[in-house]
């Protein structure tokens, strides 16, 4: 077991499955949600594929697919164990910050596409106005998220110290 403190496996499993269900309800795929919740509930925030498979009772292929998704969304990182070919998967304290910050690139691409849509359809058409409003929303969100993330950094440092 990777945790320094021994916990009741049933209680941990209940939390993992419950939190994963909340993530699924919010739109995350089921297996990545379960893997993320398991990593989050682990004291050191790090597990191997074998440990994840044993805890969640899932196949190595399911772990691999889930970790690939989570790594692409910047919610976990892969680390090579020193002197070994095994990888450990780690969730960090700032995973939500990283995941949200990395969404900015997606929002920028949407903004470019929406600008092209407004230009193509004409700003004075109903569809063009609808796209312009959507573009304005994403531009607003982008500014607000950047300001919110800066406030979060200050707040986090007050609560938890320097990362």
From TrEMBL:
Stored InterPro entries: HTH-GbsR_regulator, HTH_MarR-typ, WH-like_DNA-bd_sf, WH_DNA-bd_sf
Residues in HTH marR-type domain copies: 27-87
GO molecular function ontology, one term from the record: DNA-binding transcription factor activity
Tree of life domain: Bacteria
The entry's keywords: DNA-binding, Transcription, Transcription regulation
Transmembrane annotation, as ranges: none
Pfam families: MarR_2
PANTHER family assigned to the protein according to its UniProt record, in alphabetical order: HTH-TYPE TRANSCRIPTIONAL REGULATOR MJ1563-RELATED (PTHR38465), HTH-TYPE TRANSCRIPTIONAL REGULATOR MMPR5 (PTHR38465:SF2)
Full protein name: HTH marR-type domain-containing protein
Species annotation: Streptomyces griseorubiginosus
């Amino acid at each position: 077991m990777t945790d320094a403190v021994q916990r009741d496996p049933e209680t941990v499993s209940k939390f993992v499955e419950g939190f994963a269900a909340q993530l699924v309800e919010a739109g995350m795929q089921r297996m990545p949600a379960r893997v993320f919740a398991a990593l989050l509930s682990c004291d050191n925030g790090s597990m191997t594929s074998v440990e994840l498979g044993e805890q969640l009772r899932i196949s190595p292929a399911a772990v691999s697919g889930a970790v690939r998704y989570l790594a692409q969304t910047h919610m976990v990182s892969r680390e090579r164990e020193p002197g070994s070919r095994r990888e450990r998967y780690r969730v960090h304290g700032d995973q939500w910050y990283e995941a949200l910050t990395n969404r900015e690139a997606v929002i920028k691409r949407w903004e470019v596409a929406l600008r092209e849509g407004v230009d193509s359809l004409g700003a004075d058409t109903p569809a063009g106005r609808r796209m312009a409003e959507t573009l304005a929303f994403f531009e607003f969100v982008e500014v607000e998220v950047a300001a919110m993330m800066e406030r979060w950094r200050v707040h986090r440092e007050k609560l938890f110290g320097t990362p």
